[in-house]
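Deliverable D5.2: sample structural annotation.
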Amino acid sequence: MEKWILHNKKGDFEGMSRELGVDALTARLLANREVRDVETARLYLRGGLKDMPDPALLKDAEKAALLLEEELSCSAAVAVASDYDADGLFAGQILKEALTAAGFRVKVLTPDRTQEGYGLNRRIIDEAAAFGAGLILTCDNGIAAREEALYASEKGLRLIITDHHEVPEQGIPEADAVVDPKRSDCTYPFKGICGAVVALKLMQLLYRRMQLDEEALLRRMLAYAAIATISDLMDLREENRILAREGLKMLEETDNAGLRALIEAQGLSGRKLTPYHIGFVLGPCFNAAGRLETIEMAQELLAETDPARAAERAVALIALNQKRQQLTQEGTAEAEKLLAETGPDMVIVLHLPGVHESLAGIIAGRIKDKYARPALVVTGEGDILKGSARSVPVYPLYDKMAECSELFTRFGGHAMAAGFSLPAENLPILRKMLNEKSGLTEELLSPIIYLDAAMPPEYATVERVKEWESIGPFGKGFERPLFGRSQLKLHSIRVLGQKRNALRLRFSGESGTAFEGIWFGDTAVWEEFIRSHYGEKTFTMLERAQTQIPIALAYQPMLHEYNGMQSIQFQIKHFQAVT
């Protein structure tokens, strides 16, 4: 059962309210997100591009810019070694456009996800040499490329690494420059930027050195940086908020034909774009290319200048993402079938041999979310299997996998996500060892839902909801406000959609005023919940508005517009029985 916990952050809410001219609850919302003083709040609410840290604070960034400037006077050819996810794609696009405009010949090279895996490799280095490049510039990868760095040196190529991942225990590779905010000797004030933003900051310094228009460069690349930041699940804190907010504005009016075509094909033209549209509509299309095909499909869309051809490429990319969604659904259904037969362990380990290896992480995430416990999904057949894992906050995944590291041929990741490969015969041993050493209990695995306030629905007016919206953008690390109340009465329920994947309900607060709520998800969950807690006939009676039941709801008030009139609709996120 979920545990609902009220945030109990301390702060001068009344003082912040007066200084900022906002509602006291708005000040509390900011404090709950670690914004506890007026100066920081002003930066979060009104910060602009001028408030972002100077790129020169990144260790080795000025050195890297000098190396690039020197390369322009030599071969003037640079090979960009990118990655196959959305962050790598847009990091590569930033470097390609910025370097080309500065006078370089540029070739972007990416690894094949299935055949080569992540990161810089010898094939990419060989192709860079064949291209005539004197220098390789990585983006969103390279911090662990120790052997590849030596190979590049043997081939007579200079190497600049730009990355944002954690530095391995062995230290940084022997490259000509290594730009990564996670370096222990890097004084850059915010470590949470993505690979595309690191690449953009290097280009700012190069343009500064070459006396090119740095501000115009920044504005032109903001949309790319925003997509990468949100798609790579970076926390929307500090400068990432500025990048996301300003980048989304630029995306709405982008002159990139491919992006325009994709936005139009997804029905988003003329709409105010939010992190949701990146995370769940546009971003997955770019990631689908790197998962099921090669990233070249997405690169070609971004490079297209003809609107008609861009529209065709956008439709093809959407179709590929739909295929990815279908394959994911099928793989998840297969996982559910296995769990129905065996029951979920404390640590779920599933072998889905027919599932595409690039979908293992998505399926593991879905299983983790549904069962509220760590999930490892293993794919493939033969001697060596590959897998991905997703975890819950109480289970430090990487540390637990390290306890049985002898079972893996390779593994890596962090507390919440990991990837690995292992001999097939070790799979049952892994499942047994992870569960024996898990230390997990049903109590520990109970999901914790943090509420901003026990706010009665009556408090949510159109004006207040507009003010709460103004503290966005919302996303990972800066979540949309969530309120809860237990003294509510549910009056009616109506199942919506042919797939029965939404629910409209009417409920009232303590004043007796009626409100409208909407739930998106499996409505069977509601049917089971009501019948088990309130009786077999209660759900049917609620569908007919013939009864009332006490209920606790956790909700997000949203603005709803109909016929030019604005009202409040409560998006229901969680619910509990009240006895």
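Annotation notes: The chain has a mean pLDDT of 94. The first strand starts at residue 3 and ends at 6.
The annotation will be released with the project's public dataset once the embargo ends.
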